[in-house]
């Protein structure tokens, strides 16, 4: 038997994928399970994007592209940054990757030495700590307290910094909490990063999904110094419902981007050519479908949020963005006779046939994550089931 590497033995598999797999297994056995674990929009990719990708293949664009992405796509991304955020980037400061996930993975590979620390606010997206560990780094968690809308403060960041700190991750709008950092909160964090020369990794993948009039501000917009200190991570997966196309990108300092491109040239060669053509259309074509999907998410969220908070022992901050609700269910779990939220979630799946992700997967064990990337009808049925389950156990 061949021993696995030390590096890989530290990695835990994605719990969100595990829950989705378990829900599918129960469904395949004939049970009427509702899965709210998924992290992808339930809409099809807009037709103009599909057509553009199709045309590109017919026109013969089926070969390798430059490792860091097509010039035309980089131009479209540069145009998007300028239009949406007033940010100026050159092509040498952009790399197109196989999804935002791989932009992050490659970034950690090029910035971390063994033992370097990356500060990750909790609750966090499940892949951040694992990717840091895979690059030899150490994740350092700071508690984004529920009382502070799951966000960290400049002071907390300052206290967590050591001589080994290399970077901090800011994910706004956040998966799993749906919270957004304000300009002022970002400025406070930015000041600390400037003083200690800490790289800011700004994951803005949910940028287009904003509700109740909330705005998205990138920390890179606050000053030229902060722009220089920031690598923005983004992509078309969530904004244009293109999860399976695998197109993401990173924008930042030229030296970092070049190193990432060198790694890509030896690992992926390039993001799928056809998908790159789809992404060009996503950014240069009509943005109407993006807004339509946003409106659908907002409508669902408003209805479901209210229903959810009517369940005894459940409290939930109203999401400002993304497509997740992140209720605190500690009291509901206790009142239902469970020792912890993990066993409550397990029973929800087995007895109420609703799959949600336990907050322990995101570093906050009192919460659960429900994705509202499902039809309103299914969402209402799922919340009714949770409500009846909690009532039946009291
Ligand atoms: N960042 C966050 C916070 C996410 O939730 C996700 C996907 O779930 C990603 C990055 C990765 O997105 P992509 O599908 O582009 O790899």
From TrEMBL:
Pfam families: Aminotran_1_2. GO terms for molecular function: transaminase activity. Its EC number is 2.6.1.-. Residues 32-386 form the Aminotransferase class I/classII large domain. Coiled coil: none annotated. CDD domains: AAT_like. Transmembrane segments: none annotated. It comes from the Bacteria. PROSITE patterns: AA_TRANSFER_CLASS_1. Its cofactor is pyridoxal 5'-phosphate. It is an enzyme of class 2 (transferase). Belongs to the class-I pyridoxal-phosphate-dependent aminotransferase family. This is Aminotransferase. It comes from Siminovitchia fordii. The gene is aspB.
């Amino acid at each position: 038997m061949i021993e696995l590497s030390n590096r890989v033995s530290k990695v835990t598999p994605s719990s969100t994928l595990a829950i989705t797999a378990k829900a599918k297994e129960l469904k395949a056995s004939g049970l009427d399970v509702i899965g709210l674990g998924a992290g992808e929009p339930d809409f099809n990719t807009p037709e103009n994007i599909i057509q553009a990708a199709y045309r590109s293949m017919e026109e013969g664009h089926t070969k390798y592209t430059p490792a860091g992405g097509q010039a035309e796509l980089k131009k479209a991304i540069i145009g998007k940054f300028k239009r949406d955020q007033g940010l100026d980037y050159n092509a040498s400061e952009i790399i197109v990757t196989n999804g935002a996930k791989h932009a992050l993975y490659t970034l950690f590979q090029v910035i971390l030495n063994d033992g370097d620390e990356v500060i990750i606010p909790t609750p966090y997206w499940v892949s951040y700590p694992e990717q840091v560990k895979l690059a030899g780094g150490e994740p350092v968690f700071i508690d984004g307290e529920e009382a502070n809308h799951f966000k960290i403060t400049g002071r907390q960041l300052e206290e967590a910094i050591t001589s080994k700190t290399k970077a901090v991750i800011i994910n706004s709008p956040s998966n799993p909490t749906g919270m957004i950092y304000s300009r002022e909160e970002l400025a406070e964090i930015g000041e600390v990063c400037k003083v200690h020369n800490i790289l800011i990794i700004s994951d803005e993948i949910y940028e287009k999904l904003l509700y109740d009039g909330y705005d998205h501000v990138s920390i890179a917009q606050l000053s030229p110094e902060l722009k220089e200190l920031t690598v923005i991570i983004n992509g078309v997966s969530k904004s244009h419902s293109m999860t399976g196309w695998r197109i993401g990108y990173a924008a930042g300092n030229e030296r970092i981007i070049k190193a990432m491109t060198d790694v890509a040239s030896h690992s992926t060669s390039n993001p799928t050519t056809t998908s790159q053509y789809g992404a060009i259309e996503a950014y240069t074509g009509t943005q109407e479908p993006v807004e339509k999907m946003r409106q659908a998410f907002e409508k669902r969220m408003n209805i479901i949020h209210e229903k959810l908070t009517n369940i005894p022992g459940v409290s939930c901050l109203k999401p400002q963005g993304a497509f997740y609700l992140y209720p605190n269910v500690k009291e509901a779990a206790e009142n239902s006779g469970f020792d912890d939220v993990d066993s409550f979630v397990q029973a929800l799946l087995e007895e109420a046939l609703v799959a949600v992700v336990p907050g322990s997967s995101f570093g906050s064990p009192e919460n659960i994550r429900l994705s509202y990337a499902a039809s309103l009808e299914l969402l209402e049925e799922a919340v009714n089931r949770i409500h009846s389950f909690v009532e039946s156990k009291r």
